[in-house]
Design goal:
The complex is a heterodimer of chains A (about 280) and B (about 290). By secondary structure, chain A is α/β, with parallel strands linked by helices. Chain A contains 10 helices and 10 strands. Chain A has a single domain (about 5-275), classed as P-loop containing nucleotide triphosphate hydrolases (Rossmann fold), CATH 3.40.50.300. Chain A has helices at about 65-75, 100-110, 120, 130-140, 145-160, 175-185, 205-220, 235-240, 255-260, 265-275; strands spanning about 5-15, 40-50, 55-60, 80-85, 95, 110-115, 195, 225-230, 240-245, 250-255. The chains are: A alpha/beta (about 280), B alpha/beta (about 290).
Chain lengths: ~280, ~290
């Protein structure tokens, strides 16, 4: 298997940051605020590889830096240090952290997709569900109205949203349907990398199960590489083959999901697994 | 107004301000379609009544110039008459005209003259809203980034939504137009009928937004394409009878190739008339001359 994403030493610090920030924070110290300068270390020295067609899980309590990693990889924030090489395609590997705004937007529109926990972040409620999918297609350069209609309806069928609701506004949809529209939107440009940020949090159990089924199906059929961020161990167990455990901005443990959950090594992971079971 | 007594400088605006406006004009021409900020001065009329266009006109006008002012195609409406009068008062020796062909500097509100302009003519627009992205994004900082990156997908989504909900594009005026393959401008509220006239025109188009403090330009022989979805062609007003399909003619001059305005009559019917009054008048004169020959 070839890696699609190579992340090395990803660091983001909120505040002015000093030389002692990294040493004075972290899981050993038990905090992420630097005592010297007061900066918050959102994530530090995060390194991992994502293989082609793999689903990688990132788990951790809130404030552990999971979403920061996702935001950095989706180029919504600037990293202080570190790099993330995206492989694949015809071009040579691209360092996501070294792109300017326009390049980042282009790459995002063509090769990456994101599904947020809250569909309000990922969808525009002023335009129809079809329009939301159209927006992404238009961003990636497809300007043919009839093409867009066809692709959008195919995607809605794929994600089990009734096509008859295609021209309705997302605000009139149930939470699960909104999440499906968001997934359809993310998939519309056939991305190489899909980032899922707490996609099932806040949905009821039966809807959760169907969304997770959908994600697994998509991974199997389209072979999309995904990073799944969650604090739900069940989701991780079902989706991810490998898992990273994060605490106070650092990766404290990583390995095969079963191994991490069955035989946790780090004290925090043990506590996490124990509290869930 | 007694200009001598009150020592109003030629062109009303002081030289310092004129220089600043001219610099902005040069920048606007150098970057076609880019909204150049400038410090819009107070004018002796309220913002929103054409102060942007007037400042451009006053900083460009010289003694040899012949100025024409149009308001919705007409030379005779209050706005046009007042601005023309003002230019006459503050620019000693400058000629004004109603004739498009005679003018070297034309200030217009919401129309482009029917007669094609020449290389030696400049058309100045009064612009209420300079940014076409304002209908999809309210934050100006974000809009600037979108312009910089050439990200106009959300305007295209607006077209998509129009097609979905109304089966046609509902933008009747201020149609977003892409200049020189990058910046999309709001061409001021000209009807769609006038948009193709911006494309590869021999004359310079200048746009001045007084309230929003922006100047932008479409230089001569520059590409200007209305923003469209690839398989939904851009359409202009065609003035045809909905049932018979015949094109309406101007009630006054009989023209069937100009932009028409509809006037509702007391009996419920309509009368159509040229919006460009100068074009209408010259059509009439030509017809009378032809009759005279016969």
């Amino acid at each position: 298997m070839k890696p699609i994403l190579d992340v090395k030493g990803l660091t983001r610090i909120h505040g002015k940051s000093c030389d002692g920030c990294l040493a004075a924070t972290g899981p050993k110290v038990g905090g992420n605020q630097c005592p010297h300068c007061g900066s918050i270390v959102a994530c530090a020295d995060v390194s991992f590889q994502l293989m082609e067609g793999e689903i990688l899980g990132i788990i951790g309590e809130s404030g552990s830096g999971k979403s920061t990693v996702i935001r950095l990889l989706y180029m919504l924030d600037q990293a202080l240090a570190g790099g993330a090489l995206l492989h694949g395609g015809e071009e040579s590997a691209i360092d996501l952290m070294a792109l300017n705004r326009a390049q980042a937007r282009q790459l995002r529109d063509r090769h990456m997709g994101i599904v947020h926990q809250n569909p309000r972040l990922g969808l525009n409620y002023q335009i129809s569900a079809g329009g939301n999918i159209a927006e992404r297609l238009l961003m990636s350069g497809n300007r043919r109205y009839h093409d867009i209609r066809r692709i959008a309806s195919e995607l809605l069928v794929r994600t089990e949203v009734p096509v008859s609701r295609m021209d309705d506004f997302p605000g009139t949809f149930s939470g699960g349907m909104q999440q499906r529209v968001q997934i359809a939107k993310a998939l519309s440009t056939r991305p190489r990398l899909l980032l899922l940020d707490e996609v099932t949090t806040g949905l009821d159990l039966s809807v959760q199960a169907r969304i997770l089924d959908l994600i697994l199906e998509l991974q199997r059929e389209l072979g999309i590489s995904m990073i799944v961020v969650t604090h739900d161990l069940g989701v991780i167990r079902l989706l991810a083959s490998r898992t990273l455990v994060m605490k106070t901005g650092r990766i404290v443990e990583s390995g095969l999901t079963d191994q991490v959950l069955q035989d946790p090594q780090h004290a925090y992971t043990q506590q996490l697994v124990a509290s869930a079971l | 107004m007694n200009t001598a007594k009150r020592k109003i400088p030629f062109g009303f605006i002081d030289d310092q301000a004129k220089r600043e406006i001219r610099r902005s004009i040069l920048k606007a021409i150098a970057i076609p379609g880019y909204q150049t900020p400038y410090s819009s001065r107070e004018m002796p009329m309220a913002r929103g009544f054409g102060t942007g266009g007037l400042q451009l006109t006053l900083s460009l006008v010289g003694r040899q110039d012949v100025v024409k002012v149009i308001d919705q195609g007409s030379d005779d409406s209050v706005n046009a008459v007042n601005i023309r009068q003002f230019v006459q008062d503050v620019c000693e020796g400058v000629q004004t005209t109603l004739r498009t062909q005679e003018a070297s500097l034309i200030q217009t509100r919401h129309r482009i003259p029917e007669v094609p302009l020449r290389e030696d003519q400049v058309l100045v627009f009064q612009v209420p809203y300079p940014d076409s992205l304002v209908i999809v994004e309210s934050n100006e900082a974000t809009r600037k980034c979108m312009h910089g990156e050439g990200d106009y997908s959300r305007l295209l989504v607006k077209l998509y939504e129009d097609m979905v909900h109304f089966k046609k594009i509902t933008l009747s005026h201020r149609y977003p137009t892409q200049i020189h393959t990058h910046y999309v401008i709001d061409p001021s509220p000209i009807p769609r009928y006038d948009v193709p006239r911006l494309h590869q025109a021999p004359n310079l188009f200048l746009f001045g937004a007084g309230r929003e403090k922006k100047i932008y330009a479409v230089p001569p022989y520059t590409e200007a394409r209305p923003l469209v979805l690839d398989d939904i062609p851009f359409e202009v007003e065609d003035f045809t009878h909905p049932e018979t399909g015949d094109r309406y003619c101007c009630e006054v001059c009989g023209s069937d190739r100009s932009f028409l305005e509809e006037f509702k009559q007391a009996d419920g019917g309509s009368v159509w008339q040229c919006s460009d009054t100068d074009f209408c008048a010259s059509m009439l004169e030509a017809a009378e001359a032809a009759e005279g020959v016969i």
